[in-house]
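Quick one: C-alpha cells for this chain, please?
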Amino acid sequence: MGVLEVPGKLFLGGEYAVLQPNCSGLVLAIDRTLMVHCSEADKDRLEIPRWDLDLRDMTAPITEAMLPRERFVRSLFHATRELVGTPPTVHLVAEPHKRDLLRRDLGLGTSSALAVVFAQAFLPQEAPDSEAILDLALRAHRTVQGGHGSGADVATAWAGVSIVFRQLGPNRLPLIEALPTPNRLPLRILFTGKSQRTSEAVQRFLNLQTTAPRYLQSFLRQSEQIVDSLRYGLRGQTKRLVREVDNAYENLTQLATRLHQHEPIPPIFRTAIRMTHSAVKPSGALGGDCLLAVSESDRYLPQLQNVAQASGYEILEFNPVFRGRR
C-alpha cells in the first residue's frame, strides 16, 4: 500500500462560520505532515512512536482507563472500519520525520489527518483524492466528534493543499476549491504556548441559532465578506490582506465575548503588531494554539517577529502549501 502523507491545517478565515451551510472558509495546508507507512497484515496493528503507542489488539474494547490519545485513535479507527464494512486488515506505522505533524500538539488538525489516512488505508482501491476517501474520512471524524465539526480540516488534509471550503449541509459533500499560489504572502505563524480545545465553544456557537439568531446572522455575513476580501488580498493586494485579517480579529473577538470566552489575543499585542504594518488573528480556536500574522510587505516581517518574540510568542518555521498534491 505504501506511504500515505497528509498535511496539517490553519484557518486564514471563516472559522466557526463554516459550521453553517453555505458559509465559506479559507484553510491553509501547511508543510507539517502526518506520514504513515501502510501495509496489509494478518491482523490490524497501529504504531505511533511519537505518542508511545503500539496497538497490537485493535479489537480491544475502548475504556475510560485508556489515555485520551489511545482512546481517540481507537475510536476513530473503529468508526472508520465500521463505516467501510469489510476493509482489509492493515499495519499502520506513523513514521517520525523532520516536519512531523505529531511532533508537538499545536492545534494543526492531527485528528483530521488521521481520519484521512485511515480512510485511505481502508479503501486501498481508491485514488487518494477520490470523493469516496473524503466522504469516509468526514463521516468517521464526525462520528468521533459527536456529530460536530465542519469538516474543513478533514477536507484540507484530503486535498493536500490550501483550499476554499464551503459546507453544503447534511449528507452532502462540501465544495472544495484549491487556492491559487499567491504572488506574495508576508506571513508568520505564531504559537501561543497553550492548547485550546474547541468542543464547548463550538456547542455554544451552534446554540446561537436559538439564543442570538440576529447576532449569528450578522457574524456570518461579516465572515463571508472577510473571506471574499481575503481571497482578493491573496492575489497580491497585501494591504487589503492585512486589513481583512484585522477585521477577522474583530469579528472573532466579538464572537468570543458572545461565547463567554476571553479575547483571543491580548489587545496590547494586537496594537503592537499593527504598528509594524501588520495584523494578527487566531486560527480556528478562540485563543490558544496558533496565530496568523501578515504584513503589508516582507520588509516589515523582521519588526513583526521582534514584537511577537518580545511578547512571548514562538515563531513556527513552516509554510503554507498551495496547488497540486505533493
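The chain has two domains: 2-178, 187-321.
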